[in-house]
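pipeline stage [seq->struct] | target=GNAT family N-acetyltransferase | organism=Brachybacterium avium | residues=218
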Amino acid sequence: MTDLPDLATLHPPFGLVLRAGDLTLRPLADADLPEYAALLQRPIFADPESPSVFGWYRAEPEVRVRNALSFQWHLRSAVSPDDWTLPLGIWAGGRLIGCQDIAAVRFAERRTVTSGSWLTLDAHGQGFGTLMRQAMLVLAFDHLGAQRAESAAAFGNEASFGVSRACGYVEDGTQMSTLLGPTRHEQRFLVTPETFRRPDVPVQVDGLTPELRALLGA
């Protein structure tokens, strides 16, 4: 029988792995989705009524999971040099605790990435949020050649503000959120390679193949 290619050969993002301290970041595969679905039903926000709660999190748990799985499959099918999002699962000590996205539009021309992230409530306050953002920025700046990384968070989301500042982001104006759910006033943040505050631990990046670089426009 002819040997079949592995999944990372067929879909290069699946081969990407980042390691930083106790954290491992990699794209979610189908085998991870049952654990991911269980994670989505656990608390993420201390106050579920806060204006900073994500619109997708306000759905009933069963609907939230169904929508999230559909979104994961959509992101995989939509990756192209013109527009891509890599949703990286976050594992700490082998346990899935959240997700860190990195995305870009026309990256080859703009050299700009955006990001979003979340952690389950029981993983808050342990430095994971800062380290996973820093690992993503090492990938963006050192390995993909990004010149800018942008982020935004709703006013009142002090945890996200704190992570951004700890990574060297500076305030970059405000905007109204385009995400689903109640309209939110957001603070924009910007970090560049020059202002980036690097982690205290090394970040190892594996699986950034020529095929993946081409797919991302890098």
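stage status: PASS
auto-comment: The chain is about 30% helix and 30% strand. The first strand starts at residue 17 and ends at 20.
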